[in-house]
Design a protein that fits this description.
The chain is an alpha+beta fold. Helix content is 40%, strand content 25%. It contains ten helices and 15 strands. The strands form five sheets. Strands 4-3-5-15-6 form a five-stranded mixed sheet, covered by helices on one side. It has a three-stranded antiparallel sheet with strand order 13-7-14. Strands 9-8-12 form a three-stranded mixed sheet, with helices on one face. Helix 5 links the parallel strand 3 (90-96) and strand 4. The chain starts with a helix and ends in an 8-residue tail after the last helix. Keywords: DNA-binding, Transcription, Transcription regulation.
């Protein structure tokens, strides 16, 4: 039995919650995965997994063994990297907002893949919450506050935000010149499908953030839908500047209240503690930090 391969299979089963998902993830026959786990349990003399018709979960011994396995496998990958000319290799799974990927990361990505040709990227573009461990994701990029202490958080950039509306909406309601002029206006409301939290308008006034409560006719739960509703004339929105720059240039949206801006929005890379030393994650996040900090970054006005 190849113990390192068995450990790799075992960790994927724990992370994905099933033999079939782990087999598909590792591109192995399911029968081979089953045999490896039986051999591993026999070798250790303990039961590592609870198996039911609906799910697979680690036993107490399995949970303890899992933590040791991920540390050993990451250490092994790091050690092997020392003898590959510091060239990380393997599959890197990343999730990020669709707009960040489409407008910023993907256009610049050839630079990264040329620099690290042995890394194969799998990038998911969406705004949904991700269970990094269970879904086998190495790194996720998210905007806003990060509340999960179980993850390592690497700040990328503080994104400039703007307040916008469609020209047709502003023609009908008037162009606000100050916060006092917002009376009689309405917003497109953004709500989180995960937490249910709802977002209206916020403005940075001196050292405090002022919330402005306006009526709404439409609420959406995706960044793309949020902008589409704004273009359609449903009200004011606040969004990172990079996300609407093209729409503003095309005249489909118009920025307002330039003298009273929304607070900046943090963009952060998150990854599990046990992948903190993964060479693939490290070089990718380092590249993102550099990309966001460059002069003329899309995240800055």
């Amino acid at each position: 039995m190849d113990r390192f391969n068995a450990m790799r299979v075992f960790t994927r089963i724990v992370e994905l919650g099933g033999f079939t998902k782990a087999a598909d993830s590792l591109q192995l026959p399911r029968a081979s995965v089953t045999v490896l786990i039986k051999q591993l349990e026999a070798h250790l003399g303990v039961q590592l997994l609870h198996r039911t018709t609906r799910q697979v979960s680690p036993t107490l011994d399995g949970a303890a063994y899992y933590q040791r396995c991920v540390n050993l496998l990451d250490d092994l990958e790091d050690a092997e990297g020392l003898f590959r000319g510091s060239q990380p290799k393997g599959t890197l799974r990343v999730e990020m907002p669709a707009s960040v990927g489409r407008l910023v990361v993907l256009p610049a990505l050839p630079e990264f893949t040329d620099r690290y040709p042995q890394i194969e990227l799998e990038i998911g573009l969406n705004d949904r919450p991700v269970d990094l461990i269970r879904e086998g994701v190495d790194c996720v990029i998210r905007g806003g506050l990060t509340m999960d202490d179980s993850l390592v958080a690497r700040p990328l950039v503080q994104m400039d935000q703007v307040t916008c509306a469609s020209p047709a909406y502003l023609q009908a309601r008037g162009v606000p010149q100050s916060l006092e002029d917002l009376s009689g206006h309405q917003v497109v409301e953004y709500f989180s499908s995960a937490s249910g939290k709802r977002y209206g308008l916020e403005f940075q006034v001196d050292d405090e953030v002022r919330l402005v409560d306006l009526p709404k006719r439409l609420a959406v739960n995706s960044a793309e839908g949020y902008l589409a509703a704004c273009v359609a004339g449903y009200g004011l929105v606040q969004t990172p500047h990079y996300h609407v720059a093209q729409l503003v240039r095309e005249g489909r949206l118009q920025e307002v209240l330039r003298d009273c801006l929304p607070p900046r929005l943090a963009l952060t890379a998150l990854y599990p503690h046990h992948r903190q030393l993964s060479p693939r994650v490290r070089v990718f996040v380092d590249w993102l930090v550099d990309l966001c900090a460059r002069p003329g970054s899309a995240f800055k006005r």
